[in-house]
Amino acid sequence: MNLHRIDLNLFAVFDAIYTAGSLTKAADVLCITQPAVSNSLSRLRDLLNDPLFVRTGHTMTPTPVAQNIIVPAREALELLRKSVQASHIFDPLIAKKQFNFASRDLLEASIIPRLLTQLENQAPNITLTNFEIGYNKIVSEMANGHLDFFADATTFSDPHLSKHKIANDRYVVVAKKNHPELRQGLSMETFLQLDHINVSQNPQAQGLIDIELDKLGHKRRIKFRSQHFLTVPSALVKTDMIACLPYHLAKHYDVAIFELPFKVPPLEYFLYWHISMEDDHAHRWMREQIMAIAHTYQSHDARMQEAV
Fold first, then answer.
1. Regarding the domain with residue range 171-265, which homologous superfamily does it belong to in the CATH classification?
2. Which residues contact 94 (CB under 8 A, 6 or more apart)?
3. Which among 104, 132, 101 has a CA at the least distance from the CA of 116?
């Protein structure tokens, strides 16, 4: 059997004939013409190499092959119906679904923990996964359904992706508390003299900090390059090195935080998803939760900064 030739509509017609016992009654149930039912039955007979029904008086009697496949055919059709209904009706309280994310900092450090707390009460059977992925695989992984959301400060442009800005941030300098060289604050001279930890997934690419320094004719001393922000705090407390991190991430660590001694453009974080999921009810619900949490989180940060 050539699986590429299978048309699920044929099995819907098959089920109707089996239930109704005649082509005419099946046509009435399906709201199509009797010739259309006959044509579908003919195609299915050819596909399965079996007559499926034989006429007995005014009744279409199923063959042994038809009797064998009617139950799995009905189960498959019912599963399809339920899947279609689920795509239009989403109840987070009973839904069982996994959402896959790709995010390195903002989403994982600040939004996902809050999202997990919210899901405990609102959607107890929904699970989350967060993993790293190369930029060149984002679109394909979203298209095949393996990735639901990508969040980053990187401006990512692709006609197959939708995006929404979820947060603003800024770079700050972090160091161990009571750093011997920073007791009087952080000057440009000290910033350039101290060794730095640089966090980047692409060691060949020049980051925002170094781009701005280059404009000023300066270059910092990078002692250690890392792919992960989580390695920074443990390295800082054991050395006199410093690092530039997004503020929202730095504030979670037990470190001293200083403003940069030069201007750097603000960071903008975006949430990305595939355009094919735009109207999916479950996906839309999750987007709304993420955006609401991000808005509340940003508003809280703004109030805290104003208080200071």
1. Periplasmic binding protein-like II (3.40.190.10)
2. 125
3. 101
